[in-house]
Design a protein that fits this description.
single chain; alpha/beta; 6 strands; 31% helix
């Protein structure tokens, strides 16, 4: 007797939307946001993994992003499909708890997670965040307050932090 195996293949779709920080590629898995990638982003998956172009699954994501960039939204309320290790998903969940306009250091996040010696692991997980801006990895800084690493580039990180702190006009004039 043979047993038939059914393999379920996830449906992936993507679209590109404009933002003050350049084009953002949005990727959905089975209709749920699974990726938000900037141009030239570190750890950006290959384009061929994004699926077919289709703007339909992204209406609410784009609406919330537009409200965020207009300064009208401080916390995203979107279902997310985040593929990663259990530790990565734990770090990403904690990133979503960092309030708008505030920052945490990698070490502070490690402490909050009950792993005080894991600041480097927190940094690595932070860098693999597949849904930047919405899962606000830009709000994580070095222990000294320095802007260390950002998959979208340090200039974008600085601009996002300045935007959230209400100093965006000054910082945007620098770029």
């Amino acid at each position: 007797m043979t047993t038939a195996r059914t393999t379920v293949v996830a449906s992936r779709r993507h679209t590109v939307t404009d933002s003050p920080y350049g084009p953002l590629t949005l990727v959905a898995t089975d209709g749920v946001l699974a990726g938000l990638y900037m141009t030239a982003q570190r750890h950006r998956p290959p384009e061929e993994t994004f699926g077919e172009p289709d703007p339909v699954p992204f209406d609410e994501t784009i609406r919330q992003l537009d409200a965020y960039f207009a300064g009208e939204l401080k916390e995203f309320d979107l279902p997310l499909h985040l593929d990663g290790t259990p530790f990565q998903r734990t770090v990403w969940a904690e990133l979503r708890r960092i309030p708008y306009g505030e920052t945490r250091s990698y070490g502070e996040l490690a402490e909050i997670l009950g792993k005080p010696g894991a600041s480097r692991a927190v940094g690595l997980a932070n860098g693999k965040n597949p849904v930047g801006i919405i899962v606000p990895c830009h709000r994580v800084i070095g222990a000294s307050g320095s802007l260390t690493g950002y998959g979208g580039g340090l200039d974008r990180k600085q601009r996002l932090l300045a935007f959230e702190n209400g100093t965006r006009d000054t910082v945007q004039a620098l770029f």
